[in-house]
Design brief:
Layout (H helix, E strand, L loop, with lengths): L2 E4 L5 H4 L5 E2 L1 H11 L3 H8 E3 L6 E3 L10 E2 L2 E2 L7 H5 L16 E4 L2 H12 L11
Antiparallel strand pairs: 1-7, 2-4, 3-4, 5-6
Helix pairs in contact: 2-3
Bound molecules: iron/sulfur cluster (2 copies).
Length: 130
Amino acid sequence: MPIFYECDRCTACCRWPGEVRVTETEITALASFLGVTESVFIDQFTRLNQKRTGLTIVEQPGGACIFLEGENCRVQPVKPQQCRDFPNLWNFPGFESVCRARPVELGFQEWRERIVAATGRPPPDAFAET
Ligand code: SF4
Ligand code: SF4
């Protein structure tokens, strides 16, 4: 049975170090949401990623994402896919020790529906029922 992780909204994943990739499409949506041009958005809110292959969201001085305000994401309705996908469609060994999402065993169809609701997209083929 697949496991769906129900987010606790603890915001830990918005505070720990790491890059948050943003695609061109996401930049368009984020800039529009914030009411700035894409050029301004790129200047103010992104930097080149470490591999120099794309853009990542900049951090606050303490390391938290620039869009974290208190316990809330300032760009929640248009937050990047990378944020939406964690921890169900990507995570890392031992993530359970730093993420408070609650694991729930579901039937495949319900799991798929919850994935779509949480991430805004169907699970990739690699997650298909075997
Ligand atoms: S964009 Fe929002 S959800 Fe993503 S890391 Fe930043 S604050 Fe968290
Ligand atoms: S995904 Fe995990 S770490 Fe991120 S807010 Fe939800 S419970 Fe917290």
